[in-house]
Each structure stands twice: as C-alpha cells, then as structure tokens.
Specification:
The complex is a heterodimer of chains A (300) and B (659). Chain A is of the alpha/beta class. Chain A has twelve helices and ten strands. Chain A has two domains: 205 residues, 3-Layer(aba) Sandwich (Rossmann fold); 78 residues, no CATH class. In chain A, helix 3 runs parallel beside helix 6 and helix 5 packs across helix 6. The two termini of chain A are 37 Å apart. The chains are: A alpha/beta (300), B mainly alpha (659). At the A-B interface, helix 2, strand 6, helix 3, helix 4 and helix 6 of A face helix 6, helix 7, helix 20 and helix 21 of B. Chain A: It holds the Pfam family BCA_ABC_TP_C.
C-alpha cells in the first residue's frame, strides 16, 4: 500500500511548494511542501489550528498564499481563479458545509453537472447519471430532501457526489468522515480506495485516525503550519515528532503565535492547549480526538 | 494662489466632517459586518434633533451637543444594534442591506413628519470668529471641525489599540464566535461600536448642517461621501478612511472652484463623491470568495406552469374587466403605473429574490429604458426591445467595475450610479430636459397602434404576465438552479467550476433589461415623461415594497407594484401624514426584511391552511368531486391562493429558519 514514493519520475498530480500564508503577524502555513499523486490517497493530518484547511484554501484558490507555489497537473496554478482550477480537474469539499441548502439533494448534484458542462449545461440540462452518483456515495434515499435538512455526514457525502459530477482528477476532502457512524465510515473508506483505483488523486484532511491509517498511501503531518513529517502510515505512527505534536507540549509554542497582531487569529492557536493527550501512540491504531470540532479552524 | 489655499481649507473642512462620519461607518461595519446604508440618515435626524434642542427649545449649545452626542445618539445606536441589526452580519448581504435601506427611508419619513419642511438654520460654531491667513479667511467653525476630526482619529486610535474593549473590538472583526469562546462579549462590543458609530454620524451631520443646510436628503446622502471615503480603506482601515475623506473633501471643493458653473461639466460638481467611489472601486483588488454557507435563506414556493398561466390569465381578465367597465383614464393610468412597478419588481425578483444581489437603482434602469424608447422614436416592438437591450447594457456596465468584488460593493455602486444618472444625465437638457417634457409615442404591435389607454394598459398587463411566466420558467430551469446555488454558497459554485463574475454581470444586465422594458412601456403609457418619474430615491421604496410583499415570488412583485402605485396616491390624499407613510414603510421593511418571502408567502401559508380546513369538509359533502385525489391535492383548476402551492421538492413550505 505504500509503494508510491514522493516525487518520482513523473510530475506529481499536485505539488505544494514552499507555501506560506500569513494573516497579519500570524503565520498560518509556514513553508509547507508536499505532493499528492494520482491513484493514491494522501492524508493531511495535524492538530486543530495547524493550517490544514488554510492549505486546502490555497490549493483550491480560495486563499492567496503570501509566498510559494501550487502546481497542478504540471502547471503552476498559484494565481489561477477558483473556477479555472476546477475546470482543470480539481474538486473539493468543505469542513464547514457548503451544500446548496435550499435545493434538493438531487438538484445539488444536478447543478454541479450543469456547471461542469458549461453553457451547454445551462441551456440544456442533462439528468443522466445523477441517481447513479447518489447511489455510489450511498445517499440516494435522501435524493428528494432539501440539502439543509439532511444529517451532517450525509451532507458531506453529498458534497463528494457533487464534486464527482465534475469527474475531477484530484479530490480535496476536508474532514469527509465526520458525522458518519462506524459502518458508514468503513463504506466510505472503500469508496475512497475505489476512487483512487480509478486513477484519481485524493488529498484528505481527516481526524479519524483509523480511517487515515487504513486508506492512506502517504501521510503528511502539519503542525503550526509546517510539515513536520511525511511517510507511510507505519512511518508516521513511529515518528517521534508526530507523537510530540499530538501530545501537545505547550512549551514549544512560538511566542509570536500567541501574541499576534490579530487577537482573533492568535486565539485560534491557543485552542491547541485543549489538546487531549493521546494515550498509546505505540498501539497499532492511534485515535486522535477531534478536539474542539466546533472551533472554526480557518482564520480569515 | 490664495483662492487655492482657501479652497483647500474648505476642502479640508468638509473632508474632516466626512472623515468623522465615515469612521463611524467603518467602525460599525467592521465589528458587526452590517453595512449601515442609513448611516447618513441617522446623521440627518440627529442634526434635526440638535437643531430642535439648540434653536427651537433654546437650550445651551454645549448641553444640546452633549444630549445629542452623548446620550441620544449612543442610545439609538445601542438600540438599533440590540433590536434591529443584531445577527444580520451572518445572514445574506441582501437582507442586511434591505433592513438598513428600511431604516434609511423610515428615518427620512420620520424627519419629515416630526419636522415638516420649513426654513431652518443651524448657525456655525462661534459664528463671528475666524482667522485671517493672508487673503484667506478661515472660520472658527472650519478650524473646530478639523480639530475635532483629529481628536476623533486620536480617540479611535487609543480606543482600539490601548484599551481592553478596543482589543475585543478588533478581535470581533476577525471572528465574533471565537471572541465569545474566549470570554469576550461580542454583543457588548457590537453595541458599543454602534453607539459610537451613530454618535460619529451625528457629529458629522451637525458639523455639516450649518454649511449645507438642514436638508432631509442632502444630509442623508452624506452616506455616499462617507462610504466613498471608507472604500479607500476597503471599509476596514481607519487611517485610509481619513485620507480618503480629506482627499474627497478637497476634490469636491476644487470641483466647485474650478469647474464651469454651467454646461455638462457643471453636473459633475454634485456627483464628485459618486465618481470618486467608482474610481476607488475599480482600483480595488480582487475579493476572496466568501466561505461559509449563507444562513437563513428560504425559498418561496414555486407554482407549476399551468397554475402560473391560469393566474396570469385571471389577471388579464380582471384588467380587461376594469378596462371594459369604463374606468376613468386617470385610474387606468394608475393601473398601468402599477403594472410598470410590478415589472420593475419582477426584475428584482430575478436579481434579489433568486440571485441574492441588491440593486438600489432599479428605477434608474427603468428610466434608461424610458429615455432610450423616447429617443429612439420607434414606437414598435423593435424600439421597445432595443430600449430594453440598452438598459441591459447599462446594467452590465454598472456591474462590470465591481465584477471582482462582493455583493455589498455592487449594491453600493448602484446607489452611486442612481445618484449619478439622476443628477448628471436625467436632469440634463439633452436627456429628459429639466421640466420633464420628453414625448414618447404609444407602442404599436405589428403595425397596429394601440391608441386607447385601456388597450395599452391591457397590453402592459400582458407583458407583465409574460414576464412573470418567463421568470418562473427560468427559475425552474437549469439557470434558475444555478442562481439559487450561487446565492446559497458562492464558494462551492467556484470550486465546481462556475465563473461567477461573468454570470453576475449577465444576471445584472438581464435584470436591468427587464426594468428597462418596464420603463419603456411606461413612457408609451404616459406619453410625456421626465426626470421626476425616475428619481433615484424612489428606487428605495420600490425595493422595500418588493421585499415587504415578497421579493422571491412573482405574486409578491405583482402585489408590490400595486402597493407602490398607491403610495403617492395615499400621500397626496393625506399630505399631513406623507412623511408618516414613508416612516411606516421603512420601519415596516425593517421588521419584515429578514424574510424576503414577504407577505406573499404569508398568504400562501394562509391559503394552505384554508385549503386544509375547507377541503376535507368539501369532500364530505361532495363525495365525487372531479379532478381531486384523495390526498387533498388538486389539479390546479380552481381558484384560491393555495393554488400557488409548492409542487417542487425545494418548496416544502418549511417555517423560515432565520438568524
């Protein structure tokens, strides 16, 4: 499962190259460099406030990086608008839900189809495959419900289905499994493997360590905006830096992040002190609690 | 040379007053994310209160100032935040805009009611004092104003950077939720910002009232100057806001001094702030997409096509009966006017109800259509549609500079555009002419001229019905779904590959075109039109009535059109309460503005309930009723509001969940 080296002979699907994002005096992402390959599932993990969602925003174009580059399918897309990256084959879901609340679940996917097909889609909508897509992610029983009335986990799957309508080469999934129960999460893991087997690249921010360790080929660990470790699930599990980050030793908190120019932003970093120490890092699977899941992670 | 100095000082004085007002606007906007369109209106009302205390009641000047700035204005600011604008920041921008436009109109109405028009003057501070500087005489009032503005700047700096509550204010700019989580009190912060903000509006208004006079409109439109200045600081930087205000003040002063006082350029003197605003907006950098689902949007039920056609037919028959029943020409003209307003409101249903964008100049687009129709002198369908196309083009041009920005800026630039068109174009000799005597011919369709007013009104109603049906078709189709999607989550639309910038320009153009068509038809109806028919201010009651009656439904627009037509009728019948009517409308919109589905949706709900009550009994008495299924739904052939009931999945008739 881990025979996908970072880099390699072919250009990776996605390259994040020394990306820096600063909000006022606070550095949310610091020289982050990592890749995600086609046909693999890549995990991006880290404590709350580590900059994972900010990374996603930079990759998808919702946030301009202060420095650094994003290359997608061999082309520099750092300055490209959001919709152009999407046209090039990038799809994403959101940590804070972005479903079209007043449309039905089916219409959510239909809109995605119509947008994907461009002007033709706007003039002559094609309804095919929508139900198949809903079925594939396992939410067809909700097809006729309003998207703001379905459970969170279902809405996350809906966002995935909506992405898939555009047949993306790269999927950016932001905490896709939160809100799913155990058996749903298992099914979801299988779906991710299937999608990767179709040749898609998947980059996933996720707190469910069972899922991350189970489906990812490569994992990058982000802490205070920097990549502190990259490797296979096995390597990550043994990495001392990762264990330290998750145990949350606060004496390593850089001063500028606590006394930043923006009170709101620095407050985010302080949420880390809430981190519950993880019991047995030596166990086969490590569960990192999704601490403070209600705290908005992205500081804007 | 000396005149240059004196005009610079005059400019610095007005700039200082703008800066004071603008900093209040920035403060309230940044801390609560509610852009207060009524900021200038508060300044205006407070200036009247100050006049009332210091002049009418003869209170001591300083006591009056203290009462207004230290007690009344802060109390009103606190109350407005507490009871009106609280929570609006997280909702759709359109709702916040509509609510503050409601305040805008309501306050003007209130001022007219409490202080009926009569000459009033507020003397400048220390009227007889001044300083001679070479050839230039600087009044004490000017010096005081500039000194106060510096004091305000310093005070705000200290407040925001050196006090605990100020730090909390800056924190709440970033994330009020988070502030709450860490023991801050966002509500206190917001209330304090509004108290200070309204107080600063009052100060700006009072300082300017001795120069520009106590005028309901001039002082209210101070908001355009204030936000033009604030825009330079992107509505968040106070230092840049001060720079913008001073620059604007000087620019305006120079325009008065050096531009010719007659001819076309003379018109530009009055619109310097609006022009300034456009330039700043064009130069603004690209905005980031808003992330986060927009809360609190509920769609109105969508009727089926058969039902829409049936209702449209019923409306036509109704109007035909009115026409055939020998209605007087005056009343027929009123019916035609109502149809015009209803069509303009339909354009708002598209733009605001479906698209989530607000235009504060929809009547101006109607004016463009009317002007084009009259100037083209082609009173036929080709001329009509060409006029509408011209209005659409103008609408797209207005949206173009704000292509990269968010909905708020679009709305603000429409207000500036409305003022610009009204003062520079519509009132100019080459357009409507000053007295409003531009002739327009009655429309002829396929060679048949429609000379009778009754026939023309019927044709207008037909256009209204067709427009409504076309709108519903659009809403049901793919385009309509994308519109709703864009309103619900712009960020998701972007990541799905939609280039919203051009989509928005197209939407805006289409909406302006619809308004332009209405204006062109109106020109033909009246035969003589003028700038007075399309005053920019009237776009605001139009928007408010559209929202009150329901800007998400065609029914709401139709009812709203009738309502807007009745407004001036009511006012001319009861001149004593003309202001009160505005006040009721404005504050009514404040109360109802949170539900854009408006009264129409309440009626739909009522219809549903009546249906649920009556139908079972009806079935009991008439066991075999054709066309009815046992579940109580019907085929849509008989009358009753319930026939506009939802049949689509996104119209489940839920109770609106508001912020």
């Amino acid at each position: 499962m881990s025979d996908h080296p970072i880099g390699g002979a072919h250009a990776p699907l996605l390259e994040v190259d020394h990306v820096v994002v600063q909000f006022g005096g606070v550095t949310a992402v610091n020289e982050a460099t990592f890749v995600a390959d086609a046909g693999t599932v890549t995990g991006l993990i880290g404590p709350n406030g580590a900059g994972k969602t900010t990374c996603f925003n930079v990759i998808s174009g919702l946030q301009k990086p202060t420095r650094g580059k994003v290359r997608f399918r061999g082309r520099n897309v750092t300055g490209a608008p959001v919709h152009r990256r999407s046209k090039r084959g990038m799809g994403r879901t959101f940590q804070r839900l972005e479903a079209f609340g007043s449309l039905s679940v089916r219409d959510n996917v239909r809109v995605a189809y119509d947008i994907h097909r461009g002007l033709a889609g706007l003039v002559r909508p094609g309804a095919k495959d929508i139900d198949a897509l809903l079925d594939r992610v396992g939410i067809s029983s909700y097809a006729d419900e309003r998207a703001d009335s379905i459970p969170t986990g279902t809405a996350r799957l809906l966002e995935l289905a909506r992405c898939l309508a555009g047949d993306p080469k790269l999927l950016l999934l932001d905490e896709p499994s939160s809100g799913l129960d155990e058996s749903e999460t298992d099914d979801f893991g299988d779906l991710l493997r299937d999608l990767a087997a179709e040749g898609r690249g998947i980059l996933m921010v996720e707190h469910d360590m069972d899922l991350v360790m189970g489906v990812c080929d490569t994992i990058h660990v982000l802490d205070f905006g920097s990549i502190i470790a990259s490797g296979t699930p096995g390597e990550i599990r043994r990495d001392p830096a990762v264990q330290r980050a998750y145990l949350g030793y606060s004496d390593e908190v850089p001063e500028h992040e606590l006394v930043g120019a923006s009170a709101g932003a620095s407050a985010v970093e302080e949420t880390r002190t809430d981190l519950v120490p993880v019991g047995a890092a030596t166990e086969a699977t490590t569960v990192i609690p999704a601490v403070g899941a209600t705290i908005p992670e992205d500081v804007r | 040379m000396s005149s240059l100095i004196s005009f610079t000082i005059l400019g610095l004085f007005t700039g200082a007053a703008y800066a004071i007002a603008a900093s209040g606007l920035v403060l309230t906007y940044t801390t609560t994310r509610v852009f207060n369109i009524a900021h200038g209106a508060f300044g205006m009302v407070m200036a009247f209160v100050f006049w009332d205390f210091s002049q009418r009641q003869g209170l001591n000047l300083f006591l009056s100032l203290f009462l207004v700035l230290g007690v009344i204005a802060p109390a009103i600011g606190w109350g407005i935040q507490r009871f009106v604008t609280k929570g609006l920041g997280e909702g759709p921008v359109s709702v916040a805009l509509v609510v503050t436009v409601g305040l805008f109109v309501g306050l003007i109405g209130l001022a007219q009611q409490v202080w009926p028009p009569e000459p009033r003057t507020v003397p400048p501070f220390m009227a007889s004092s001044g300083v001679q500087l070479g050839d230039t005489y600087i009044t004490a009032h000017q010096i005081i104003t500039i000194v106060i503005s510096i004091g305000v700047a310093l005070g705000l700096y200290v407040l925001l950077n050196r006090t605990r509550i100020g730090t909390a204010m800056r924190a709440s700019v970033d994330n009020p939720e988070l502030l709450k989580l860490f023991g801050g009190k966002p509500d206190t912060v917001a209330a304090l910002s509004w108290a200070i903000g309204i107080s600063l509006a009052a100060l700006g208004g009072i300082l300017l009232s001795s120069v520009i006079g106590l005028s309901y409109y001039d002082l209210t439109l101070l908001v355009i100057n204030a936000y033009a200045a604030a825009m330079l600081g992107r509505l968040k930087s106070l230092p840049l806001t001060f720079v913008g205000a001073m620059g604007l003040g000087i620019l305006q002063s120079f325009a008065v001094a050096y531009l010719p006082s007659d001819g076309f350029l003379a018109g530009t003197r009055a619109v310097v702030p609006a022009l300034f605003l456009f330039v700043v907006i064009v130069l603004m950098p690209q905005a980031q997409l808003r992330i986060g689902q927009v809360k609190g949007i509920v769609s109105a039920p969508l009727p089926s096509i058969t039902k829409s056609v049936a209702w449209g037919g019923a409306l036509l028959v109704f109007v035909a009966l009115l026409v055939g029943g020998g209605m007087s020409t005056a009343n027929l003209l009123l019916v035609g006017t109502a149809a015009t307003y209803a069509m303009v409101m339909l354009s708002l249903v598209l733009l605001t109800g479906y698209g989530g964008h607000v235009s504060l100049a929809q009547l101006t687009f109607a004016g463009v259509g009317a002007l084009a129709y009259a100037k083209l002198e082609q009173p036929n369908l080709a001329g009509l549609f060409l006029a509408a196309a011209i209005a659409a083009g103008v609408g797209a041009l207005v949206a173009l500079p704000v292509l990269r920005l968010t909905g708020l800026y679009l709305a603000l630039s429409t207000l500036a555009f409305g003022v610009l068109m009204d003062k520079m174009i519509f009132q100019a000799e080459f357009a409507f002419g000053f007295n409003g005597t531009l002739q327009a011919g009655r429309l002829s369709i396929l060679g048949n001229a429609i000379e009778s007013t009754g026939g023309y009104v019927l044709v207008m109603t037909l256009f209204l019905v067709l427009m409504g049906i076309a709108l519903l078709l659009l809403r049901r189709g793919s385009l309509g779904r994308v519109l709703i999607a864009m309103r619900d989550s712009p960020a998701a639309c972007g990541t799905l590959g939609l280039d919203m910038r051009w989509f928005r320009v197209g939407l805006f153009g289409l909406s302006a075109g619809m308004a332009g068509l209405a204006g062109a038809l109106f020109a033909g109806l009246r035969g003589t039109i003028g700038a007075a028919d399309f005053q920019f201010f009237n776009s605001l009651p139009l928007l408010l009535l559209a929202v009150v009656f329901g800007v998400t439904s065609v029914t709401g627009a139709t009812l709203g059109g009738v309502g807007l037509m009745l407004l001036p009728v009511m006012q001319s019948n009861n001149p004593g309460i003309a202001g009160l009517i505005f006040a009721v409308l404005g504050f009514g919109a404040v109360a109802l503005g949170r539900d854009p589905n408006g009264l129409a949706n309440l009626m739909f709900g009522l219809g549903r309930r009546i249906q649920a009550l009556v139908l079972p009994q009806l079935r009991d008495r008439l066991p075999v009723l054709p066309g009815r299924r046992p579940d109580g739904s019907d085929d849509g052939e008989d009358a009753g509001l319930a026939d506009l009931l939802p049949e689509t999945p996104d119209a489940t008739g839920k109770v609106p969940a508001h912020v």
